[in-house]
Design goal:
4-stranded antiparallel β-sheet, mainly beta
Length: 125
Amino acid sequence: QVQVVESGGGLVQAGESLTLSCTASGLTFANYAMGWFRQAPGKEREGVSFISWTGSRGYYADSVKGRFTISRDNAANTLYLHMNSLEPEDTAMYYCAASSKPFRWTYSSGDYGYWGQGTQVTVSS
C-alpha cells in the first residue's frame, strides 16, 4: 500500500519562510513524478509545483514562481517544498502527491493517484 505523508506546516508571518516535507512509501520513490497541491478555503485545489522522478524537470505555478523551490532526495524518499517570502494568499492546506504511474511527467491533478493527508500553512499579515 502506498502511503504519502506531509509535514512542516505551521503559522508564520508574511515575509517569512517555511519548508514542507513529504515522504512516500510503498512505491519506488525515484521512479515517480511528485507534486505539491494546495487548497484554500472557498477555492479549488490548485497545483503548486511539480518535479520529475530525477528532478531534471520542474513546474511552478505563476503565483509561486520565484518564491518557492521544489526539490527531492530520492535516497531519502523525500520531497521538499521550500517556501520563501510567504504571503497571506499562500494560506492553504498543502498536499503532496505522487503520479499514478511511474516515469510519467505531468502536472495535471488527475494524473496524481497517491495523496497525503495535507499539512496546513497559515500566513498572517
